Amino acid sequence: MAELSEALLSVLPAIRVPKAGDRVHKEECAFSFDTPESDGGLYICMNTFLGFGKQYVEKYYGKTGHRVYLHLKRTRKLKEEDSSSSAGDPPRKKPTRLAIGIEGGFDIPEEKFEYDEDVKIVIFPEHLEIPRDGLEGLPDMVQDRIASAIEAILTADSASRKQEVQAWDGEVRRVSKHAFSLNQLQNSVRIPPCGWKCNKCDMRENLWLNMTDGSILCGRRYFDGSGGNNHAVEHYRETGYPLAVKLGTITPDGADVYSYDEDDMVLDPSLAEHLAHFGIDMLKMQKTDKTMTELEIDMNQRIGEWELIQESGVQLKPLYGPGYTGIRNLGNSCYLNSVVQVLFSIPDFQRKYVDKLEKIFQSAPTDPTQDFSTQVAKLGHGLLSGEYSKPASGDGEQQPDQNQKGMQDGIAPRMFKSLIGKGHPEFSTNRQQDAQEFFLHFINMVERNCRSSENPNEVFRFLVEEKLKCLATEKVKYTQRVDYIMQLPVPMDAALNKDELVEYEERKRQAEEEKQPLPELVRAKVPFSSCLEAYGAPEQVDDFWSTALQAKSVALKTTRFASFPDYLVIQIKKFTFGLDWVPKKLDVSIEMPEELDISTLQGTGLQAGEEEMPDIAPPLVTPDEPKAPMLDESVIIQLVEMGFPMDACRKAVYYTGNSGAEAAMNWIMSHMDDPDFANPLVLSGSSGPGSTIICPDPPSEDSVATIVSMGFSRDQAMKALRATSNSLERAVDWIFSHIDDLDAEAAMDISEGRSAAESISESVPVGPKVRDGPGKYQLFAFISHMGTSTMCGHYVCHIKKDGRWVIYNDQKVCASEKPPKDLGYIYFYQRIPS
Q1: Feature table: binding site
Q2: Where does Zn(2+) bind (predicted)?
Q3: Residue range 318-332: average pLDDT?
Q4: Tens digit of pLDDT for each residue in 773-812?
Q5: What are the angstrom distances between the C-alpha of 695 and each of 14, 562, 617, 700, 726?
Q6: Residue 706 main-chain phi, psi, to 5 deg
Q7: Residue 350 DSSP label
Q8: In a 3-state reduction of DSSP, which class is residue 685?
Q9: Smallest Cα–Cα separation from 793: which of 101, 301, 294, 407?
Q10: Measured CA distances, 681 to 487, 629, 693 (Å)
C-alpha cells in the first residue's frame, strides 16, 4: 500500500479536474474504435482527458510522459424484466412528426441492456492499478482531489455526446417575416367550416386559404403527379399575397402555414387573428386533411423505391471480415457512411491512410482527435481491418428478425464526423445531406491536407475542355478546368416507355378523381446512351461576349474530356427544378452499363482551320452604362423569386457572364456556403462616379495551398486569386486560360534579377497533377438515394468486391442478390487496364 500511495503522490500534480470547455473522450479511443466495452476497456488520460485503447495507451505514454489514467471497463448484460408490469410493451404508435426522439416522432429504440462498470486508476510504466475505492491511507486532501477528478470524468458529458443531437426535429419552423404585418383585404369574405372547393378547379383536397384575400386554391402538383394543380402558387405569382394556410389542418393548436415569398413552411403567431378575419374560429376547428409533415413521412415510407434499393424483399447473406465492416448511423449520417465505404475500397486511399497508419499516428499532434490525417487513417483501418466486423451483440434468447440479419456492431465514426464537419454550416449538423456535396467536401479536405505529399484525389481528378464557338465570326475559344465529377443530364423526352407513362398518368388521374387506390408506379426508362448524348451535345450560350466582335453574340459551347481519370465518378442529375422552380426528383430508371467507353468524348484542342478569338478580357462595364456591369435583370428576378438574396443573384449572373438562369443557379448552389455569399457585388478598380475602389484582402493560405497542391507555383496561385477576388474555383479556371502568359512570366524571372534558386524552386510544371489513360471503364460501385429530396430519405451503397456485389446499408453488410444498378444516384467506374 505504501508503494501505491507513493506512486499516487508522485502523479498528483498531473491529475486535473475537467472544467467547462474541456472535451472528455471517455467513449472512444483517439486512434481506434475501442470503447469501454472492448476487451481491454478504455484508458482516459487524467491530464488531457483523451481516451486510448489498450493497444495505444503505452505509445501515448511513451510520447507524452503522461503516467496516470482512469481505466473504464463496461460489461453488458440484459436488463431484468420489470415484474410489476404485466401488460407488456405498448404498441408502437405511427409517427406523426418528422422527428426523432420527441413526442410524435420516430422512437429511439429502448436500450435492452445495462452495464456493470469497473473503474480504477492505472499508473504507467509500472502498470500499478488502484481501484476507485482503494484510496484509503492517503491524506484527506489527496483523497478528495483524486476522488473529485474521477467523479468529474465519470459524470462529464463525453465529447461525442456534446456533439450529438439525440432528438432531431425536421419540423423546426421560423416565424414568418409577414406574420405581424400581413395586409388583409376588407372584402367581406367569410369561409365556411367545411365543404371547401378550389376556386379554379374541382379539387376538394390539398386546399390552401390565402390569408390576404380569402381565396381558396389547390396546392402544388408533386413530382409523382399527386397533389394539386398549382393554383395557389399561381395566385401568389399574380398577386404577391404571401401567406396561405392549409384548410383541414386547422386545430386549436395551430395549422400548416406556408410563405410563398420565403418558400418554406413557417409559423404565424397571429394565426388566430388572421383566420378570424374570415370568420374562422380556430378553437372550433378539427383536422380533416393530412399535414405536410404527414405527407412527407408517407413519401419517405414509399414501398417501391425503398424496397428495391435496400433489397429488403430478399433474404441476404451477411458478410463479415476485412473490408466488410458496417458503420453506425449517427443520426442522418448515411450519406457519409456510403461515401467513405466507397472511398476506402479504392487502393490509393488505402495506401495513403491505412498502409501508412503507424507513420501517421507517430507524427500526430498533441490532440489527435483534431488531426485530419489521424482520423481518416483511423476510419480506414476500422473499415478494412475486420476487427469490428462482427455480428451485432444479441440478447442470447430471441432470434433476430429478418431486418436485423446481417446487422453488425460496426464502427461509430463520431470523431471523424465531428472533425470533417467542423465549421461547416451543414455537415456540422445532424440533418440529412447530399452525398455528392459531401463527396466534394471530403475531396476538398483531402486537398488541403495533402499539400506536399501523395494525394489520393488524383484518381478522380480530370481536365474538362470547353470549346466556345462564336456563331457570328466562326472563331473559337478553348479553355480547360479541373473537375472530379461528371454530371450527367437526364433527357426525359428520350424515355423508351412514353406510351406507358401517358397511360399511367391518365389512370392515376382517374384514380385520384374517383378516390381509388393509385395504380402501380410506372417509372420512366431512359437509355444511358441518351444521357451521354445530352452531355456531349452543343449548348447554345446567348448574350456571349465575343472578343472577336467586341460585342455580344450567340455561341455554342461543347464540353469534352481533356484527360480521363483512373476512377470516373458520374452523378445522375435526378434532382432538378421544374418549370415553376419547385425542386423535384426525377423518378427514372437508367440501365447503367457494366463496361463504359467514353473515348468519343475526348477533347481535340484547336483544330486545323479553326481560328481562335483574341484573348482579351471582356469589359466589366458597357459604354452606355459606365457605372455598373450590364446584367440580365430577368434572370436576377427569376432567382430572387426563388428566395435567394438579391446581391447573391447579381453576383451569380455577373460571374457566369450573363449565360442564363441555369448557369447562374449552378453558381449559387456552388457558392451558398461562401461567407460573402449575400454581400454586394463590388468590382475592384472601378473608377466611375460613385464607384468604390477596393483593396481586396490577401488570398487565404488554404486557397493558395490548394492550388499549389495541383502543381502550380505559389506566385501563380497568388496571382490567380488576386485576379478573381480570391475565388478558389474561378482562380483555377483563370490559370488555365492564362497558361501561356504565366509561362512567359516564368521565363522572364531570371532576367528581372531573381536568383536561380528562387526560379528553380518555383519552376513547377504548369497545370494540375492529373492522370490520363484510355477512356474505358468498368462499374465497381454506386450510391443510391431513397426519398423525395437529397435533404431527406436514406442512402446505401453497393460495391463490387471479390467478383460479387455487396450492399452496405449502415451497419448491415450483405452479399447483394439484385443490385439496383438502374436506380443509382452516384456511380464509380474504374479504368480497365489496357
Answers
A1: 198, 201, 208, 218, 220-223, 231, 258, 260, 263
A2: 198, 201, 218, 231
A3: 90
A4: 999 999 999 999 887 665 567 899 999 999 999 999 999 9
A5: 50, 36, 21, 15, 12
A6: -65, -45
A7: I
A8: coil
A9: 301
A10: 29, 10, 12
Question: What is the DSSP pairing of strand 174-175 with strand 595-597?
Answer: unpaired
C-alpha cell at position 196: 371547401
Number of Cα atoms under 13 Å in the Cβ half of residue 577: 12
What's the pLDDT band for 766 if we cut at 50, 70, 90?
Answer: very low
Which residue of the set 334, 470, 531, 792 is catalytic?
334
Note the residue count of the chain: 834
Read off the DSSP letter of residue 767.
S
Q: Which of the residue ranges 88-92, 351-355, 802-806 would you say has the lowest mean pLDDT?
A: 88-92
504, 497 contact by CB (below 8 A): no
Exposed e or buried b per residue across 758-771, where buried means at least 16 C-beta atoms within 10 angstroms of its C-beta: eeeebebebbbebb
Q: What are the residues whose beta carbons fall under 8 Å from the beta carbon of 587, sequence distance 6 or more?
A: 223, 224, 305, 521, 523, 524
The whole-angstrom separation of Cα 98 and Cα 89 is: 23
SS3 of residue 625 by DSSP? strand
What cell does 80 get? 431484468
29 is catalytic: no
* pLDDT at residue 288, rounded to an integer: 72
Binding site for Zn(2+): what residues are annotated?
198, 201, 218, 231
pLDDT at 38 over 50: yes
Report DSSP letters for 29-78, one per residue: -SSS---TTSTT-EEEETTT--EE-HHHHHHHHHHH---EEEEEEEEEEE
Q: Residue 658 is placed in which grid cell?
A: 450573363
Read off the C-alpha cell for 443. Answer: 475531396
- Numbered residues of the known binding site for substrate: 208, 220-223, 258, 260, 263
Annotation says 334 is catalytic: yes
Average pLDDT, the chain: 80
121, 70 in Cβ contact below 8 A? yes
Listed in sequence order, the residues at least 6 apart from 301 whose beta carbon sits closer than 8 Å to its beta carbon are none
- 402: Cβ contacts below 8 Å, ≥ 6 apart: 315
**Selected residue with higher pLDDT from 707 and 620:** 707
What distance in Å separates the CA atoms of residue 685 and residue 697, rounded to the nearest whole number? 14
Count H helices and E strands in the chain, helices first. 24, 30
All three cell numbers of 393: 451483440
CB 798 within 8 A of CB 781: yes
Among 170, 169, 190, 194, CA closest to 287: 194
Rounded to whole angstroms, the Cα distance separating 232 from 218 reads: 6
User: What is the model's pTM?
Assistant: 0.68
> Which of 326, 296, 314, 19 is closest to 156 using CA atoms?
19
Q: What is the pLDDT of residue 203?
A: 87
Mean pLDDT of 296-305: 46
With contact defined as beta carbons under 8 Å apart, do 278 and 186 qualify? no
Q: 635: number of CA atoms within 13 Å, CB side?
A: 26
Exposed, middle or buried: residue 564 (CB in 10 Å: 0-12, 13-18, 19+)? buried
Burial class (CB in 10 A: 0-12, 13-18, 19+), 833: exposed
Site of grid cell 492505472: 122
| Spatial separation of the C-alpha atoms in residues 436 and 783, rounded to whole Å | 9
Give Rg (Cα) of the chain.
31
Strand partners, 77: 114
pLDDT digits (tens, 9 = 90+) for 547-591: 888 888 899 999 999 999 999 999 998 876 544 444 567 789 999
